[in-house]
């Protein structure tokens, strides 16, 4: 989020000068400082000694209050990311300190400066007296977040709650014609859902926040006696007709007019997003308004009364979440960093990084005596016996490697740009190996990716474990670049640290419990319809998650026998058509529209070029054809490993059966 703040500051007129940054991680602070052409400070106190005019607090929520208080006491105006405070008492303390210091404070309530929200409230008078306001937010997490612990889901719910809450409160404050306060009439909560009814005089506000619903939605609807209008924060648009809808013509035309609004305004919003590149509409406008208030002596764009109302309601709703989940309030409030859990077990352990990821979770159920390492808390269904909550970017806790005889490194960046992959794939791996060296752990199994193999030179080339990596992987995208550099790092530095390595390169992972097309094969377009890259007869390398985990488990338990490098994919599913048939056998009901890869590559390259030019930048080279072109792999080594896994499974099953018979006898 701090990066979005930095981009907004760069757009200010007159410009502001960034005098310094601070982060708990010195390396991340240096990286971020380079983006802002400024200096990284080792402590908040040192940063505040520069006497900045304005301080942006973009820390995790538990550190908001202490950071903001220190900034106010140093004489700075303060912008605090949401939530402004975790309790109304803390909010009151900060506001009183700001008033005594004659400083301004602002919270990250950027939806209030979203152009769509402004249009909604500007047209609210057309609706007549307000009757009801509905604020709805739906986001069903995927990946590690969806498989996280109850505590992790609570943290995510608490993190997103402020946006739909403060926008609803603001609508009630502006739409209520009386001076009545906004109060909480009813609330119900769980680790994944919050539902509440607010009241301001005769106006009712309904709040609905869910981590279980789809599609992704964030909207605010105002209902008056003469009509209804909806603000869509996902698309930065408003739609609806401010008429009662009682006349015959209105009943016929209103749905058609609303549909036309959705089409035209969504298209215009998409064009604005492509041109401006803004991920958080309203953020620049709010920061600009705050800086303007500071320079002119005007009040903050987010009033103290509004902040206190939101903080009070927020604290009450969070306490409801805590009560429903039987989780200590201190955990739900996020007021302290999560402590490391290193519960001991007798004997040696296997350390597994990325243990709360899709593949990591499956590995934890296969490998015995696993100590998982993940950024979040231990997932409820984790197979890991021990758990350490840690970010490898901040270093590897020595206790996490206690009694370890092997590390399975499955953690890596899967999204983000080159900077994110540098931090989370490359730098984190370097820290892990240095931690292993310091802790005397000499075996590392790296989970890499088949994407690290250079593109084929001919359509019929069959690649294997000896095929080299590309010389210039950057053109193949951030993910491939990060994985290539990660492998290079392991193969160049591990031996000098006394670490023996094995590298497993899975193909595209498939979870047949929730079947989806792998990214290199296609994308869902709408409903059941999918865009397929190429044609059904082209090759594809996939690996079902549980089988992949079993193969990695075999390599871990037979480390000496495992090949130095293993390209891992299902040798029985070799074409896109075969994968579609397997997906349909597991309940997938999609329909495919196949498009030649050459056409896709040309279209994607043209689109990237146009978007870059629209933003006033030269497009970075991206070898789309090389990324998407089909590959053929030699399956001998992966077939051997899967055969060994199957043999051991049969042997184990026979052993268990014979044991049962002996017990019965």
Key features?
disordered C terminus; seven-stranded parallel beta sheet; alpha/beta; globular; Rossmann fold; Dihydrodipicolinate Reductase, domain 2; seven-stranded mixed beta sheet; 20 helices; 3 domains; 665 residues
Describe the protein.
The protein is of the alpha/beta class and 665 residues long. The protein has 3 domains: 109 residues, Rossmann fold (3-Layer(aba) Sandwich), CATH 3.40.50.720; 198 residues, 2-Layer Sandwich (Dihydrodipicolinate Reductase, domain 2); 241 residues, 3-Layer(aba) Sandwich (Rossmann fold), CATH 3.40.50.720. The chain contains 20 helices and 26 strands. The strands form 7 sheets. Strands 7-8-9-6-10-11-12 form a 7-stranded mixed beta sheet. Helix 2 links the parallel strand 1 and strand 2. Helix 4 packs parallel to helix 5. The C terminus is likely disordered.
- Termini separation: 66 Å
CATH architecture of the largest domain: 3-Layer(aba) Sandwich
What is the residue-averaged pLDDT? Answer: 87
| Number of domain units | 3
Kindly report the spatial arrangement of strands forming the biggest sheet: 7-8-9-6-10-11-12
Overall radius of gyration: 28 Å
Shape call: globular
- Low-pLDDT stretches are 328-346, 659-665
CATH class type of the largest domain: Alpha Beta
Find the CATH superfamily of the largest domain: NAD(P)-binding Rossmann-like Domain
Main sheet, how many strands, which sense, barrel? 7 strands, mixed
Q: What is the strand tally? A: 26
Number of helices: 20
């Amino acid at each position: 989020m701090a990066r979005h703040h930095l981009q907004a500051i760069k757009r200010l007129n007159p410009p502001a000068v960034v005098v310094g940054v601070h982060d708990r991680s010195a390396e991340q602070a240096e990286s971020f400082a380079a983006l802002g052409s400024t200096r990284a400070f080792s402590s908040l106190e040192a940063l505040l000694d520069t006497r900045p005019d304005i301080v942006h607090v973009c820390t995790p929520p538990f550190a908001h209050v202490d950071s903001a208080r220190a900034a106010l006491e140093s004489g700075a105006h303060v912008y605090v990311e949401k939530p402004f405070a975790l309790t109304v008492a803390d909010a009151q303390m900060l506001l009183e300190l700001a008033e005594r210091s004659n400083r301004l404070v602002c919270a990250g309530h950027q939806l209030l400066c979203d152009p769509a929200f402004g249009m909604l409230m500007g047209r609210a008078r057309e609706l007549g007296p307000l009757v009801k306001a509905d604020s709805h937010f739906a986001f069903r997490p995927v990946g590690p977040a969806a498989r996280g612990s109850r505590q992790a889901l609570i943290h995510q719910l608490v993190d997103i709650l402020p946006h739909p809450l403060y926008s609803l409160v603001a609508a009630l404050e502006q739409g209520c014609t009386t001076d009545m306060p906004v109060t909480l009439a009813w609330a119900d909560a769980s680790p994944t859902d919050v539902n509440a009814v607010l009241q301001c005089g005769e106006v009712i506000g309904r709040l609905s926040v869910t981590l279980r619903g789809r599609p992704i939605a964030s909207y605010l609807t105002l209902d008056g006696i003469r009509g209804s209008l909806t603000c869509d924060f996902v698309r930065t648009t408003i739609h609806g007709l401010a008429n009662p809808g009682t006349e015959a013509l209105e009943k016929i035309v209103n749905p058609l007019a609303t549909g036309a609004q959705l089409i035209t305004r969504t298209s215009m919003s998409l064009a604005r997003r492509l041109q401006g590149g803004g991920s958080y509409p309203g953020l620049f406008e709010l920061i600009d308004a705050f800086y303007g208030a500071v320079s002119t002596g005007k009040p903050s764009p987010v009033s103290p009364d509004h902040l206190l109302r939101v903080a009070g309601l927020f604290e009450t709703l969070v306490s409801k979440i805590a009560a429903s989940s039987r989780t200590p309030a201190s955990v739900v409030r996020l007021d302290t960093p999560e402590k490391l859990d290193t519960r001991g077990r007798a004997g040696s352990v296997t350390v597994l990084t990325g243990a709360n990821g899709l593949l990591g979770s499956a590995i934890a159920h296969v490998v015995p005596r696993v100590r998982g390492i993940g950024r979040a808390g231990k997932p409820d269904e984790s197979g890991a016996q021990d758990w350490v909550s840690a970010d490898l970017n901040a270093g590897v806790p020595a206790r996490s490697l206690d009694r370890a005889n092997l590390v399975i490194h499955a953690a890596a960046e899967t999204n983000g740009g080159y900077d994110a992959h540098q931090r989370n794939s490359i730098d984190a791996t370097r820290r892990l190996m240095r931690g292993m060296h310091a802790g005397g752990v000499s075996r590392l199994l790296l989970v890499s990716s088949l994407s690290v193999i250079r593109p084929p030179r001919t359509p019929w080339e069959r690649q294997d474990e000896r095929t080299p990596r590309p010389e210039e992987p950057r053109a193949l995208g951030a993910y491939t670049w990060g994985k290539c550099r990660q492998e290079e790092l392991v193969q160049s530095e591990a031996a000098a640290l006394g670490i023996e390595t094995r590298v497993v390169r899975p193909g595209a992972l498939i979870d047949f419990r929730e079947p989806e097309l792998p990214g290199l094969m296609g994308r869902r377009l709408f409903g059941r319809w999918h865009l397929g890259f190429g044609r059904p007869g082209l090759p594809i390398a996939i690996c079902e998650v549980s089988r992949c985990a079993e193969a990695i488990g075999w390599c871990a338990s037979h480390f000496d026998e495992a090949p130095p490098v293993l390209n891992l994919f299902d040798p029985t599913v070799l074409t896109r058509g075969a994968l579609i048939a397997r997906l349909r056998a597991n309940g997938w009901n999609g329909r495919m529209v196949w498009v030649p890869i050459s056409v896709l590559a040309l279209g994607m390259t043209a689109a990237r070029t146009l978007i870059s030019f629209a933003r006033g930048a030269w497009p970075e080279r991206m070898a789309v054809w090389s990324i998407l072109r089909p590959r053929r792999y030699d399956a001998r080594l992966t077939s051997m490993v899967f055969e060994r896994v199957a043999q051991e499974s049969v042997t184990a099953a026979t052993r268990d059966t014979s044991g049962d018979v002996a017990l019965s006898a």
